[in-house]
């Protein structure tokens, strides 16, 4: 049986990406994305709770993150879940789940519309399509599903792949 490991997130960057390089010179960007979930509390009031997701991007995508992403930016991210395992300075085993980013789009919120920002590099033309047609961003789960479906319908394209 085939398995699926796919993550799609829309949220805001909590800090600028930190880019490091491996011994072989491969770029690695690490950053965090905040998403909100809504639920009704016992009193029947809507409450928003943030979730924070650790993201990593490799190679050319990491370099693009360094160039174009800044704290507070709205993003649509696709990737896969991965677990990093290492030993700390005391020799204890540590694990951390993260999303390995395979594609992303920088989003701009204008009023109640989502628009994709175009990224144009000197050497490459990286155009982020979609979201112009995403329609109104509602404040309900139904509205979020509608936006997700619209983004799917207009085929959100990969800005760059890892």
UniProtKB/TrEMBL annotation:
The keyword Mitochondrion does not apply. GO terms for biological process: DNA replication. PROSITE patterns: SSB. Pfam families: SSB. One of its GO terms (molecular function) is single-stranded DNA binding. InterPro entries: NA-bd_OB-fold (IPR012340), Primosome_PriB/ssb (IPR000424), ssDNA-bd (IPR011344). Keywords: DNA-binding. NCBIfam families: ssb. Homotetramer. It comes from Candidatus Abawacabacteria bacterium RIFCSPHIGHO2_01_FULL_46_8. It comes from the Bacteria. This is Single-stranded DNA-binding protein. The lineage of its organism: Bacteria, Candidatus Abawacaibacteriota. GO terms for cellular component: nucleoid.
């Amino acid at each position: 049986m085939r398995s699926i490991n796919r993550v799609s997130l829309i949220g805001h960057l909590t800090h600028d990406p930190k880019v490091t390089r491996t011994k072989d010179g491969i770029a690695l960007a690490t950053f965090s994305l905040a998403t909100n979930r809504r639920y009704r509390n016992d009193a029947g009031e809507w409450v928003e709770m943030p979730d924070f997701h650790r993201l990593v991007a490799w190679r050319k995508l990491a370099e693009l993150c360094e160039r174009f992403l800044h704290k507070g930016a709205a993003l649509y991210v696709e990737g896969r879940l991965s677990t990093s395992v290492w030993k700390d300075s005391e020799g204890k085993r540590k694990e951390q789940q993260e999303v390995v980013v395979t594609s992303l789009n920088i989003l701009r919120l204008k009023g109640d519309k989502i628009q994709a920002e175009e990224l144009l590099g000197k050497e490459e033309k990286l155009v982020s399509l979609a979201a112009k047609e995403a329609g109104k961003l509602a404040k309900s789960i139904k509205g979020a599903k509608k936006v997700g479906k619209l983004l799917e319908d207009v085929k959100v394209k990969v800005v760059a792949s890892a």
